[in-house]
Amino acid sequence: MSYAELGTTIPKSGGVYSYVFEAFGPVAAFCVIWTELILRRPTSQSIAALAAVKYILEPMLFECPVSPSTTRLLAICIVAALSFIHCWSVKWASYLQNWTLYIKVAALAFVIMIGIVQLIKQNGRAEAFDNAFEGTTSSPGKIGLAMYSVMFAYAGFEEINVVAEEINNQKRNVPFAIFISVTLVTLLYTLANVSYFVVLGKEGVLESEAVASTFAYLSLKSVAVVVPIMVTCSVLGSLSCNIYSASRLFFVSARDGKHLPPLIGLININYYTPIPAIVFNMCMTCLTLLIFSEDIGILLDYYGFFRWFIGGSGIVVLLYLRWKLPSIARPLKFPLAVPIVYVAGCAALVTVPIYLQPLKCLTSTCLMLSGIPVYFLFVYPSYTSVYYKKLMGAVTRTLQKLLQVSPQDPDTYVNALR
Fold it and tell me: Half-sphere exposure (CA, 13 Å, Cβ side) for 378?
């Protein structure tokens, strides 16, 4: 609800980056884009790519080990292939999104139906839920870390704010898209997880590297390969959506805030896609896959910290604007308690795990704050080297001719809040 209000109040692409820029200025906005650039976006896309690889290989190499280098190479190939589609055509990227969505819903509905059938066979009783919390912990820190993994599946409702300028009838469609998606995802994922526990039990879910594949092998036998394929399509759809929104975020940062090289804020004159931003995003994700561990759990911990820090920052902007600019037009407005509860939840998810992983949280915080010296050294005009400006100008002109890209017409997008 809070992001629906923000999306209709500031109908501008860029999401949290644009909101922070409007409210708190360029330095705070650069810290947001810096965090998105070096950590959050590459990490989330790496997680999705690695998950897709696991589901691709599981039906072919059931219980056979796969080398980390093979996993990373396949993940890089997936990211590159999807990025090429987004460079080539917005229409084809849209088709990919739509069809993977249909397959995702069909796969989840299939899993839910199998769970219902199994429950009926067991006379409505599932042993997996007997003493369901036995052996678990009540530690707030561990619960917070667990929430990073849980909420990863439900994240993404604010992605429509990142591409707000490409949405028709924003005042109607932005809140509708958020409300419908959150409701549908919550319902489908909850019921699907119930089905997993009914068929596999608690131990089976914990031990499986690819839960949907194991679920299919135990419940479907001869046609078990269908479910992993459908889940793979689902994960690829999520990755494609992330590539789409991340490239637009970097594009807006270069176009409006001048926080990234000007080349990234250009559009191809033939395909009308931000090819430099898409390629830039692809390179950052591939670099992350090469550097960091292929362990999805470790990547999720880093992603969760940044995701909820940035998510909370966006709603802090909402509270700030309620106080500083109470008279601006707000097509959609919710009670003040709604954003306050959201900010409190984000603060808990960021701070509670600190005492369990102090080094990791300290590293994450230092990486975010490192954007401040980077801003004044390479972005802030008064301090930027003349030689650096000349070099970037020459590189931009050369690549502009090579990629056939040009700036967007200023009359075609929203420039400011007021």
Answer: 13
Q: Output the six-digit token pair for 182.
A: 């959150």
Supply the DSSP string of 353-370, one letter for each residue: GGGTSHHHHHHHHHHHHT
pLDDT score recorded for residue 250: 92
**Helix and strand counts by DSSP (H, E) for the chain:** 17, 2
Sort 285 into a burial class: Cβ within 10 Å, 0-12 / 13-18 / 19+.
buried
CA separation for the pair 150, 129 (Å, rounded) = 18
Taking CB atoms within 8 Å and a gap of at least 24, the contacts of 53-57 are 53/78, 54/209, 54/210, 55/210, 55/212, 55/213, 55/228, 55/231, 55/232, 55/235, 56/228, 56/232
**What is the CB neighbour count within 10 angstroms for residue 101?**
15
Over residues 45-69, the mean pLDDT reads: 78
pTM of the predicted protein model: 0.83
Q: Which two tokens stand for residue 366?
A: 């230092």
| Higher-scoring residue by pLDDT: 70, 130 | 70
pLDDT digits (tens, 9 = 90+) for 355-370: 777 777 787 778 888 8
Give the rounded distance of the alpha carbon of 399 from its chain centre: 29
Residue closest to 166 by CA, chosen among 242, 92, 244: 244
